[in-house]
Amino acid sequence: MPANLASAGESGPGEAQSHGGQYTQRPVCIPVADTRRRCLLSVESTPSPERLPGIDPAASDRWQRLPHERSPWLHEEVASRMLERLQWFRQPPQSWVHWEPILGGLQAHAKLRAALPHARWRVASTQMARAQAATREPAPRSWLTWRRPEARAEDIAAPVQLVWANMALHGHPSPHRLLSQWRDWLAPEGFLLMSCLGPDSLGELRAVYRAMGWPAPAHEFMDMHDWGDLLVRAGFAEPVMDMERLTLTYGSAEALLAELREIGRNLASQRFGALRGRGWRARLIDALEAHGARDASGRLQLTFEIVYGHAVRVADRPRSSETSLSLDDVRAQLRARRG
User: Fold this and answer.
1) pTM for this one?
2) pLDDT tens across 83-140, in order?
């Protein structure tokens, strides 16, 4: 796995390079750094589908239910960059919920707790027992033990001021439903911080698969403009999106595949429909070594586009007690009374 990150233009063993996005489409993009762009989304763009195109829901469910033992290195790195965004907000949240903390980053979970030491927090997951066990504090090493108060049902159901969702949306078959669920967890003026893979991810791997005549190695990922549209449709306001590209380098095809297996699985509905054997893995490694993209030093490289976003839940508008009638309706009612 890559050990650290290098700035754009540098390379070396076990490093990654960061490259800024160059989007000039529907949103107005405001450059905030050399390697990143931030975009304030308008609501005039074409709505995104409620179901991610090309993703197999059954495969996504199987991946979520696997017993993940540790957090992927890439997810931890992305989460550390998300933590920097907390300084954008005037008041730190006093309560937060972490969606899928094992895949999202257990180290990031500890850092988030340290950054918000006085905030109430909880975790949410499709595998709650595992998530709670992974984030539970170890028992104190002392003969004098204190019983920690158990979480009450009203605390678990109480709205929070922050939903933290790192590297989760791109693997969910129904992101609109998931976003709506997160919105329901938020108090008015609470906000969502999220990240996911963008469409330029795995471009080098896709090129190898095309050259070999194989089905795609992954489903297509949505871009940040469509994620912003989907946030608006799910009931969020003022979505701000930005992206960056991380290029990871590897000493061998084996190391590259190990990284991918830790990050996820091929969830494409058009993937090969049966189990692969050892012969397939050998052919894949040979193809990557022969046709994979390499950096100047000869190391295999793989690019990940990371999409970041934050959005606010606004207070629900109260229903008006006023009734509006057209002028024709008023005239019709007056004629009926006179008749």
Assistant:
1) 0.74
2) 998 888 888 999 999 999 999 999 999 999 999 999 999 999 888 888 888 898 665 4
Cα–Cα distance for residue pair 26/233, rounded to 1 Å: 16
Q: How many contiguous H segments (helices) and E segments (strands) does the chain have?
A: 12, 9
DSSP state of 5: -
Place of tokens 């050399």: 34
Residue 327 lies in a domain: no
Q: Does residue 6 sit within a domain? A: no
* Burial 116-147, CB ≥16 within 10 A → b, else e: beebebbbbbebeebbeebbeeeeeeeeeeee
Contact (Cβ atoms closer than 8 angstroms) between residue 242 and residue 33: no
Task: Give pLDDT tens digits for 141-169.
Answer: 544 443 333 343 335 568 999 999 999 98
| Number of domain units in the chain | 1
Which candidate, 101, 89, 73, 109, places its Cα nearest to that of 1? 73
Nearest to 34 by CA among 16, 21, 17, 15: 21
Asked if 242 and 30 touch (Cβ cutoff 8 Å), the reply is no
Is 262 domain-assigned? yes
Residue 5 covered by a domain: no
Q: First vs last Cα of the chain: how many Å apart?
A: 85
| The token pair that represents 336 in the structure block | 């009926």
CA-angle at 79, arms to 75 and 20, nearest 5°? 90
Look up the domain containing 249 and give its range: 16-139+151-317
**Residue 282 tokens, joined:** 């050998």
Two tokens, residue 83: 């933590």
Name the helix (H) or strand (E) containing 285. helix 278-291
Rg (CA), the chain: 24
Helix (H, G, I), strand (E, B) or coil at 98: strand
Cα separation of 92 and 232, whole Å? 23
> What six digits make up the tokens of 180?
């709506």
- The stretches of 2-152 forming alpha helices (DSSP H) are 57-65, 73-83, 101-104, 106-115, 128-135
